[in-house]
Every structure is written in structure tokens, then in C-alpha cells.
């Protein structure tokens, strides 16, 4: 029986969840799970199939049939496979980012993804990041973090991340897209984005990645020390 607890990290786009969760998992020897990548993979499948993103029945069927797997590399980075195809890079493209929230708000899609995510964490020792982890997927997580940052800073980070990959998108457009996605994620009926009541809220606007990681690791190990 794996007695390692699970860690939940939630927050809006560009707050630094994936970057931080990966490093916390590496530091603790835990498994890192990027739940957003799963919704992105479903979205990519829907876009390729030319599905109507308002056809919730079609999206629910698609989510139930698509095979998604996350494979952790020795460097802690995840390879995302969709029906056996490596879509790690493609799911991060603006076309997917601009549609994923419409797909992720569909109840049948959420139910299927949450079922898979709960299975992934059943053995413990997982750092899972997303939007609804602390409230819905892992309500019994040992430590829940809600990571956020000022909208402008989140847009700057996302803009730089894409530019570093040679993808040049107008920064104002990025900020508008992030605001749109934040609105959909926070206003949807099922599992809206919000901090769990027992989450530790960290604003990383003026923090370094290392500073945030240290805060979280101390919170986890400190928790163990206090017991
Ligand atoms: N505290 C920080 N300061 C500066 N840049 C950051 C910080 N945290 C993350 N980043 C950078 O911001 C970009 C988005 O981070 P990411 O982890 O993908 O955010 P999220 O998963 O919350 O959308 C990445 O390029 C990452 O390196
Ligand atoms: N647990 C999760 C994770 C992501 N999502 C949805 O998937 C989208 C993409 O998630 P992501 O974590 O890859 O996005 P970023 O925060 O990395 O930009 C989010 O905007 C949500 O709409 C969700 O609904 N629930």
C-alpha cells in the first residue's frame, strides 16, 4: 500500500502550475499528472474530426472513445499520447488553447476525464494539476495549492513560452484569450475553477519558479514534520 499522499495544484492559465508541479513531483519522487493535457487531447481529437463544439453528445462520445496516456520521461516531462500518437506539442498550439475550455465544460467529457484522473491517483504519490483537483478529483489530497498570478503576468509568461518555441502571437491577443478562457473556466456550471476551501493560495506574480517550488515542498514536508 503506497502511503504517499496526493498533492493537488489548481489555478488559471499561465499561473505556472505545470512548471511547478513537475518540479515538486521530481523533488518528492512523486508522479506528475497534467490533467489539462487530457482535456487538450480530447479537444485536438474533436478539432481533427471537425466536431461541432456545441454538440455535447458528440463530444461526450469522443471523450469516452479516445485513448489518452501520459508517459513521464526521466526528465519529468510528460509525453502525451492520443490514440497512440505523440501529440505533446500539438495540444499546446493556440488552436487547441482557444477551444479547450468549450470542450472541458461539457459534463460528459468531465465525467470521463475525472474517472481516469481518479484512477491515476488511486495509488497515492501523485502531484496532479488542473482546475478542479482539490475540489473534485482529489478532495482528500494531503496538500492543496491554488496557484495564481496577475492576468498581465500570466499573459506575458504564455507569450514568452510560445515565442521561445518560435510561435509568435500578439501579446494583447494572448491576454484576451487567457481572459476568455478564465471566464469560461470560472463561470461553467460543472466544476468551475475556484480555490478549494482548504487550499493554500499562492500568488506567483512576483515569485520565481524556484521560490514557488520551495514554498510548496516546505508546505508538504512541513506538514509531515508537524504530525
Ligand atoms: N513564477 C514564474 N515566474 C516566471 N515565469 C514562470 C513562473 N512560473 C511559470 N513560468 C513560466 O510561465 C509559462 C507558463 O507556465 P505553465 O507552468 O505552463 O503555467 P500553467 O500550467 O499554469 O498554464 C512557462 O513558460 C513557465 O516557464
Ligand atoms: N482539471 C482540469 C484541467 C484543465 N481543464 C480545462 O482545460 C483547459 C486547459 O488546461 P491547461 O492546464 O492545459 O491550460 P493552462 O493552464 O496550461 O493554460 C483549461 O483552460 C480548462 O478549461 C479543466 O477543465 N479541468
TrEMBL record:
CDD domains: CMPK (cd02020)
Keyword Oxidoreductase recorded: no
The UniProt record lists the keyword Transferase: yes
Single GO BP term: pyrimidine nucleotide metabolic process
Subcellular locations according to the entry: Cytoplasm
EC number(s) on file: 2.7.4.25
Organism name: Pelotomaculum schinkii
Family according to the record: Belongs to the cytidylate kinase family. Type 1 subfamily.
Enzyme class: transferase
Keyword field: ATP-binding, Cytoplasm, Kinase, Nucleotide-binding, Transferase
Protein name, as recorded: Cytidylate kinase
GO cellular component: a single term: cytosol
Pfam families: Cytidylate_kin
GO MF term list: ATP binding; CMP kinase activity; dCMP kinase activity
Catalysed reaction, written as an equation: dCMP + ATP = dCDP + ADP; CMP + ATP = CDP + ADP
All residue ranges annotated as the Cytidylate kinase domain in the record: 7-220
